[in-house]
Structure formats: C-alpha cells, structure tokens
Amino acid sequence: MKDYLVRGLVESKNCRVFACQTTHLLEIARQKHQLWPTASAALGRMMSATLMMGAMNKNHEKMTITINGGGHIGTMIASTHSDGKIKAFVANPQVHYTYNETGKLAVGVAVGNEGTLQVIKDMGLKEPFVGTVPLQTGEIGEDFSYYFMVSEQIPSVVSVGVLVNDTNEILSSGGFIIQLLPDATEEDIQYIEEKMSHFPAVSSLIYDEHTPEDVLKMIFDDVEILESQDLSFECDCSRDKMKSALITVGKQEIEAMIQEDHGCEMKCQFCNEKYTFSEEELTELLEHM
Hints:
By secondary structure, the chain is an alpha+beta fold.
C-alpha cells in the first residue's frame, strides 16, 4: 500500500482529523541514513507528524521542525513544503534503546526531554512564524500535542508509531491527529478521551493493513474524508545549491581546499547525496566571487 494521508471532518464531534501511512518513505530514510531501530522510530514519528501538520497549511508554505531533547540521538530536523514531500535526518542515526519492562523501542530515552520542539513556517512574509515549546516526554506524539495546545491553542490528540523488524527494516509507520474545533463540547471531549483510552497502537493497525481511512473510521463512524495526498521522502538538494553553499564559506576556505585537497566533496545532510567539486571548478568559483 502506498504512502498517503487523508484529511477529514467529523461534524457530529466538532473536530477535524488527519491520518497517514509513511512506511515506505521511512524505509527510504532508513536506508539513506543507515538508521538503527530506535532512531528509525523517532524519525518516523516526527515525519508522520510533520506531514500531517503540512496538510493543515493550504498555501504550501515551507515548514521546518527541529527537535533536540538532549538525548543521544541529538538534533532531529524534518522539512516539507506541505506538498506531501519530506526530507529529514537525525544527528546520530546509530542509536538503539529499548524499555526493559516491555522491550519496546525507547524513543523518549533516545530523544530526551531536556530541550525544545521548534516549528518554523515560512509563509512568504518578511519574517517567518516561529513557535517553540519545551519537550514533555521525547516520545514525539505527546510533544506535538503540547505544541498545538501551547503555541496554536488547539486541543489535539497526536498518535504516531513505527514498527521495525529484527533486520531493522520498517514494517509500518504512520499516525493520526484529532483537533477540536471551537464549537467542541464537553461531550465531544469525553467521547474522544474514552476512545483513546483503549485504542490500539496505530503502528499495529497499519501493519495489519488498515488504511488511514480505516483508522479514522474506527474512531468516528461518521467521519467525512475531504482530501487525500500522496507522500514521499524526496530531497531537493542539487549541485547548484551545493555550489551556492560553497560560496558562503569564504575565499580563504576555498583557497585552502584548492591548495591542500585539490578539490572538495560535499554531502547533503538530508539525503546523504555526495557532490564532488574539482580543483578547476573551485578555481572558477573563486574567480566568479
């Protein structure tokens, strides 16, 4: 089943909903970054939440989310233009922790909770919107829920999950978001809380081949699906962009690359694609500068 997300409305419960499957795009990210299981789970949860947040933006503005909780995984960054395409990385992909009691992947331990979740939305204005909140658990879902409540004043349920097999391959990845609308009543809130108290893990549902629509219909019988969007892991790096980045390091640094290394190699942090520039190309760049 392909990766995609759906956006819907539940008028009877005064809420809007989003759900996604991100299994294949996370597997691509795992291969590109050589992720270990807990790092895969952390990045997969973050990408699912980021893509659903992107679907909330109607103007396809660029959105970049950064998480750093002080844990061994380091900084995590995911970026999308709200077009269903996403790129992301973790500073330390070789991280693996499990909880002793359950054997489940210990994402909160790897990420840590002594840091922040930051959302930057570039809406084409002079200054981008920046929202930053302290991390609550490092488990990602709870942290995004807290962000919505504090930074955007929208009570939200964020459920994201990943299943990884014994050979580190991604078995399932995805999630859902429920956001209350202004007219929500205490009865609406109570209904959602009761549903969530015993709702199965979303990663297990996706592994059992339930679609994003199925997941939402398990919560709300009368959900109206308004829109569907294909999802993919896709980086927009290019040789020209890397050349522009080279210019920013300054003439002295480029001269050192020519004299000492007779060229240079640059690697995109989002997809690990490598770009090589010869001594001649660097000399031409210097002349252009």
